[in-house]
Amino acid sequence: FLFFPVLFCFFLFVSCSSLVEPITQFPLLPKAFFQRMKVQWAVLLCCIVQAAAKVTVNFHNNQCHASAERKRTGKPHIVFLLIDDLGWGNLGYNNPNSTELRTPTIDRLAREGIQLDRMYTFAACSPSRSSLLSGRLPVHVNLENIDPEVHNPQDAISGYQGIPLKMTSIATKLRSAGYRTHMVGKWDVGMATQEHTPRGRGFETDLSYFHHGIDSFTHEADFISTGSVPCFPDQIYSLWDGTQPVLNRNGSYVPQLFFDRAMHTINTHNTNEPLFLYYAFREVHTALQPPLEYIAQFADIEHPSRRLYTAWVKYVDDTIAKLVDKLKSKGMWDNTLLVLASDNGGPIATFIGDFGAGANNYPLKGAKFSDWEGGVRVPGFVAGGAIPTKMQGHKLEEYIHFADWYTTFCALAGVSPFDSIASSAGLPPVDGMNLWPLLSGETALGPRTEIHLSPKALIQGNYKLVLGLQVYSGHTSANYPSPGEPQPVQSALANLQQSGAGVQVLVTAFASLARLIPADDPVLGPLLRNPELLQEFIANASPDTWEEDCGEIGCLYDIKADPAERNDLTSVLPEVAAQLRQRLEQLNRGNFLPDRGGTSQAACAKKREFGGYSAPWLRPER
Hints:
The chain is of the alpha/beta class. It is built from 21 helices and 23 strands.
């Protein structure tokens, strides 16, 4: 824009005489005037041309800026990365005291985006995912972390696992606003009918599994992966593609299948349409099954569970790096809102010896299945070009709940979060609050001052009240679990003893784990390969879940001043504790507690039609 005007001025100056001659014929001005002003006239013309060029440049820049602003302020692409059972202390930016964490991509995205330091959810998988996808607090959608085979024939709307049939999912909302909706990974919010599955909940495509977990190689929903055996003695396989089970991929590595599908989704997406990609990782839920080459990178970690867990988190970090690179190369990153979160606190219990869940919530107290901060306060952040520049690099201390993403995404898409279908069915309304004014910097204060975490836990202002018996009530070190460090023992072992499944279940569950634990391991090597030793272990297992009973009075903490929940203030501030107890009792009167029923033998029979793979077995009542 500047080179050509300058060149033009040069030639204009040289040929000024010839340019002026025709003008001198103008009858109203004397010829002598033009002859005396040849040079000045050329300079004037040059100035005019250069000024026009500058106006053109500025106009072009303003148009580009306006175009970028229109792109940013339009409907952004939304990518939600939900990591299964990720501990607070298992990411580098949250645990700088660790000597072994390697999460460079996650750490960089957290630093460049907005760290969400007070994001809360439920203490277990299915209720937290039900909250995220429905926009309700868990107390208003699902409080039971049960198997997807349950059914209560007397309740056609809510007599199933997960989200009631008449609640509208976030995918359905976004699809109504023109989004293309896709899902990969763990579902865990219902499968009794096709309407319960991802396809029935508004996702155009999905590659998913229905249970709490599956074996990454065999695709079996075994005891180590799920903590239960609903159709014993039958084995259950759980991998689903749209409207049918995946029958021909046994042996394929599940995390790789999900990654490949997600990359295909981005590759084939029309960038003129907004994208909603819900990527619910298989990792890092038990059973811990990272690729062998990643395990080798952490061979110096002595504790087997920590070695496997840390290696798998690194695998997740590398996966996210590739996804972000693909979004950038596709030209989508500058208009993407990426959210990363864990579904609940990390599990810290062991199954056998030093073989267990492997997570760490340092410095927070507790773990998955507890209402302590380590069970319900999860790591997370937002990143991507959709975040206003002025907010990038911030850390927010305002309270956020999983249910709030539903309403926030609706606001970004320009649709109402009101759920008319649920309202007509008499179901609880959406609880989520719009976070965008906070995330965009429009306001410095978040919409929440209170969170009804569970029937036994409430946050109000700076204070948190916890009632009743709580499991996994301890603190861990920065490098937990370490050899010799005390560990709680998985409570699901008691369920196994009572089920009568015994050694058969564990032998099946540990079959694929044996490849990850060397045969010469002094404890786990022989145990994983010897049915008689496993039988003896089951008979003698004594779960130790680090229980702490807060009773009816409760335990009170100032979680802003004491985030690790070490100082119970109940006796110091009895009036505050009483106020929160009264408020929790009031809120609990509105809890949603349908009878979801028990294991349906029809569900167990249906899977036999699909070679052992789980499948919807009911038709919804209209």
